[in-house]
Amino acid sequence: MTTASGDVAVIGAGIVGAACAWRLTERGLKVVVLEQGSPGGGSTGKSAAGVRAQFTSATNILLSKHSIEEYASMPEAGYHPGGYLMLVPEAQWPAHQLAIDLQHRLGVPTERLTPDEAQKHAGFLPDGLGGCTFCSTDGSVDAHGLTMAYVNRARQAGARFLLDTQVTRIQRSGEVWQLTTPTGTVEAPLLVNASGAWAGEVGALAGLDIPVHPARRMVFTTGPLKLPRPLPMIFDLASGVWLRSEGERIILGRADPADTGWREGMDWDWLEPTLEAAMTRFPWLETASLDRRASWWGYYELTPDHQPIMGQMPGVDEWLNVCGFSGHGVMQAAASARVIAQEALGETPFIDISPLRYERFSHMQHDVTDIQV
After folding, report:
1. Which residues, 6+ apart, have CB-to-CB distance to 36 below 8 Å?
2. Which CATH number does the domain housing residue 191 bear?
3. Spatial contact of 191 and 318, defined as CB atoms under 8 Å apart
4. Which Gene Ontology terms of cellular component type are present (predicted)?
5. pLDDT, mean of residues 351-370
6. For residues 72 and 69, what is the distance between their CA atoms, to the nearest angstrom?
């Protein structure tokens, strides 16, 4: 039984898949979206929802810059330009100064700050830092609100969403993809894999090796704190600790590189090493209480080089990947969707995604990896 058919089948209705659905329908294509749960119910809804254009490569800078500009124009986005403060160790400071120059050339207003100058944004101990960077147009968004805005725009443009619908088999039959689900088959000539942490498993259903795997991440939440001013998103590159204000509270986290795979639930054993690293830089956190009920966990979708996979799957007819964002999905979804719509129509993407295409895994020559968070 054929449940639905269209020009494009999008797998995944997180923020990336929802944005793709809108941009594809906007270009006149008939789109069917398959989502195993609810829109934004996977990694998107568990995101800390930071957005920044402070990257080291032109492709990542532009994906974020254009996405942030789109979010700023959308009332549903809840865009808050609270800024992003990077605390950069001495050894990394020369490379980051080059990155600032590139960001300036691409229209991103990043500031160079000494550790003393950066104290105006937050109190911290400057030990071992070479300098700091701050960008006032970075900040945070409402990831769930954004996703639902894209879903609504896509539906209004004619997209069909099949929710609570898991894809169990994928095969190419003639000129169409056939996607088997528990309720029937969806057919479309073009498939877009926007399934986040599940992207590798979706590829495997079609016999494809897409190197995306899940990694669990914790977000710890403090009780209410009296601070002199709200904190921007702060990332300490020396320890990997990040934190920012969320109302009267602070949310914070730190990636555990060993926490990969489909592990579920809060890892409270990771709290102590996270707080120990955080209080080394931010000793005032010692006065904070922890709200366990307000803390949460979710999945990152990691690739071997922590960069997304975008564009045509080599050697496979009409299969586009837009996955593996490694913590950058929310901040780059808007521009990525525009790129995928252009790719689907055979146009040259408005951002050069050559460094993010699947073909790079044949040699894996990456000397600089853009940081997560």
Report:
1. 164, 165, 166, 167, 198
2. 3.50.50.60
3. yes
4. cytoplasm
5. 76
6. 5
Are the beta carbons of 60 and 188 closer than 8 angstroms?
A: no
CB-based contacts of 146, cutoff 8 Å, min separation 6: 15, 71, 74, 76, 77, 78, 330, 333
In order, the DSSP letters of 173-222 are: ETTEEEEEETTEEEEESEEEE--GGGHHHHHHHTT-----EEEEEEEEEB
pLDDT of residue 264: 97
Q: What is the mean pLDDT of the chain?
A: 95
pTM over 0.90: yes
232/350 same-domain check? no
Residue 235: how many CB atoms within 10 A of its CB? Answer: 24
Give dist(CA 114, CA 116) in Å, integer: 5
- What is the predicted pLDDT for the residue at 366? 38
Dist. CA 150–CA 39, nearest whole Å? 10
Residue 235 sits in the same domain as residue 289? yes
Q: What is the pLDDT of residues 129-153, one digit of tens each?
A: 999 999 999 999 999 999 999 999 9
Instruction: Tell me if 31 sits within 8 A of 154, measured CB to CB.
Output: yes
Check residue 367 and give its pLDDT: 38
Three-class DSSP category at 135? strand
